[in-house]
Amino acid sequence: MGVEISVVIIAKNESQNIVDCILSAKRISSDILVIDNDSKDGMPNLVKSTGASYFNQEWKGYSNQKNFGNSQAQNDWIFSLDADERISEELANEINLIKSSLKNEVVLVNRLNHLGKKAIYFGEWNPDWQKRLFNRNLNHWDESKVVHEELLMNENQSTQKLKARLLHFTTPNAEHYRSKMEVYAKLHRENLKKQGRTIPFYKGMSSALFGFFREYLLKLGFLDGKEGLQLAILHFNYTKNKYKN
Question: What pTM did the predictor assign?
């Protein structure tokens, strides 16, 4: 039979996404936990209607929320899932297939990101390998990271990459994504300030310009059409803003 997996989802005000997310998680687990932080859009009742476990936890950062969820799970093996992600049937089949062979490795999945309804196959969004399936006795999320949480691994651990894609409905439109990136840029600036670090303007700008060139040309973002150009511009602004003094 292999190991049993718990799915941990952190979410806030995700009533539009949470039910579909949980239903996709049921393809690999009967123990699904949603970690909330005072949602106001009716999400708690939706979570409970699916049979998933609901927790409301004071916000202390992405990694802290995830680690809390891991500690409440029934099983040691954890799949970390976001509310705007879906475990496809193909990915579920692959995960269920490797359950019998899991030992101490960390399993990576490659997200297929979407801008609106369009899947993005080039540029900065592809490939997008994420550490998502792991044993909580061996791994935890680094709580020193304010943005873009990182799963800490032991030196002797190996990784395994799955072939099927994790569907990521990143943002409904470019404007929504821009607002999201502004929040991340602000958090990044606050983190630099805490560390007492200041990045010169010219370094931030040169990094943003090179990022645009790499994403749109070197990584073939132009093949994604107008969405590829939109993303290259949005990522240029994000890089510039996260180093703004």
Answer: 0.87
